[in-house]
Amino acid sequence: MKKWIVAFLATMCVIWLSACGDDKAQVQTSSGVEQIKQNGVLRVGVFGDKPPFGFIDENGKNAGFDIYIAKRLAKDLLGDESKIEFILTEAASRVEFLRSNKVDIIMANFTQTKEREEAVDFAKPYMKVSLGVVSPNGEIQSVEDLKGKKLIVNKGTTADVYFSKNHPDIELLKYEQNTQAFLALKDKRGDALAHDNTLVLAWAMENPGFGVGIPTLGEEDVIAPAVKKGNVELKTWLDEEITKLTSEGFIKEAYDKTLAPIFGEEKADSVIFSN
């Protein structure tokens, strides 16, 4: 739990600093490959409170699986992985950050759905995911068990959309930030929490007394980088880049460095796309 609290406090500081630079971010009107090269920096929207995928570590640095891959994108596009600006986003702000040109790419564990495809363009995916539900001692083991209970979700996430659409009779408690949502579960403001299954599994492993009673729910989806709708040039580059990184084993390397310590080597094929 300590890691999640540290990530939350660090995220608040970085969000404040990011807000100070919003005017600069909004000046740019194009995010094509050539424009990014002219700017000399790749602006990537990421999470700051979703370990082990995107979070602020104890040193105040961006870390996690998405971050590891994003740095490689900057290196291959601009020749130096340090030529990257991480811009923190919440789940509900990812589409707007692309539309308003605050970022060039979203790498905030963005699940590809038909609804989102209407708003942004997704590149080739690098990760697999479905929904999962965590609860005290894993006592919630089916959707039926949620009837008459309060379910915690993050606004704008796949879990929010799924339960709002398919189970409108289940009461949802919605939070902006991942850290707020998980604290609400710890504080017993809700009976269970629904999110990406990889995230709830990782969280339950670090929080004794909680278990993932529903490890998979709904269809298996994919997570992919996203760009502004119509940005064909950048999407094409990303498609080719993710294909290359997958075939050469870099996505597996990212898994080994950031996710294997939590999920184990044997889970790699169920989490990532590998050659």
Q: Low-confidence runs (pLDDT<50, min 5 residues)?
A: 14-27
Query: Domains counted in the coordinates: how many?
Result: 2
Strand percentage, roughly? Answer: 15-25%
Spatial gap, N to C terminus: 34 Å
The succession of helices and strands, N to C, reads HHHEEEEHEHEHEEEHEHEHEEHHHH
Helix content: 40-55%
Overall pLDDT: 91
Counting H and I runs of at least 4 residues, what is the number of helices?
Answer: 13
Q: Which secondary-structure class do the elements indicate?
A: alpha/beta
CATH fold naming of the largest domain: D-Maltodextrin-Binding Protein, domain 2
Biggest sheet layout: 5 strands, mixed
| Total beta strands | 13
Tell me the strand order in the biggest sheet.
10-9-11-8-12
Rg estimate, integer Å: 18 Å
Report the top-level CATH class of the largest domain. Alpha Beta
Explain what you see.
The protein is α/β, with parallel strands linked by helices and 275 residues long. It folds into two domains: 160 residues, Periplasmic binding protein-like II (D-Maltodextrin-Binding Protein, domain 2), CATH 3.40.190.10; 93 residues, D-Maltodextrin-Binding Protein, domain 2. It has 13 helices and 13 strands. The protein has a five-stranded mixed sheet. It has a three-stranded parallel sheet with strand order 5-1-6. The longest helix has 19 residues. The chain is globular, with a radius of gyration of 18 Å.
